[in-house]
Design a protein that fits this description.
This protein is mostly helical. The protein folds into two domains: about 30 residues; about 80 residues, Cytochrome c-like domain (Cytochrome Bc1 Complex, Chain D, domain 2). About 55% of the residues lie in helices and about 0% in strands. The chain is built from six helices and no strands. Helix 3 crosses helix 6. The chain starts with a helix and ends with a helix. Keywords: Electron transport, Heme, Iron, Metal-binding, Transport. This is Cytochrome c. InterPro entries: Cyt_c-like_dom, Cyt_c-like_dom_sf, Cyt_c_BACSU-c550-type, Cyt_C_IC, Cytochrome_c550/c551-like. One of its GO terms (cellular component) is membrane. Pfam families: Cytochrome_CBB3.
Length: about 120
């Protein structure tokens, strides 16, 4: 009797494993879905500056010279708008918070594009 139960559980576990193998996304698909996509917008420098002044200067300084956060004055020479959008949206480590719940996607995109021009 125990052999039948164990065999049945083994078959069920194998079937479940097969189902999960074919229905779960691959690692590449999961990474792509987890990466925020920069929406297409027209950059507005004045709005971006206002958003930065309202949300970023406490860590990055009033001229983006750095402080608690890194210097952003030439961040565009290091990171693309897509990369900046991802960092602003998701945050980075324990120091950079996520802004996805504080700002709209378009606002984050505007700031990312504005920062990407700082070279």
């Amino acid at each position: 009797m125990q052999k039948w139960i164990m065999s049945g559980l083994f078959v069920i576990a194998g079937a479940l494993a097969l189902v999960l193998m074919f229905t779960l996304p691959s690692r590449e698909q999961a990474e792509q879905e987890a990466k925020p996509q920069l929406p297409e917008i027209t950059m507005n420098a004045e709005q971006a500056e206002a958003i930065v002044k309202a949300n970023c200067i406490s860590c990055h300084g009033d001229t983006l010279q750095g402080g608690a956060g890194p210097n952003l004055q030439k961040i565009g020479s290091q990171l693309s708008a897509d990369q900046l959008y991802s960092i602003i949206t998701k945050g980075k480590g324990g120091m950079m918070p996520s802004f996805k719940d504080r700002l709209k996607e378009e606002e984050i995109a505007n700031v990312a594009m504005w920062l990407a021009e700082k070279k």
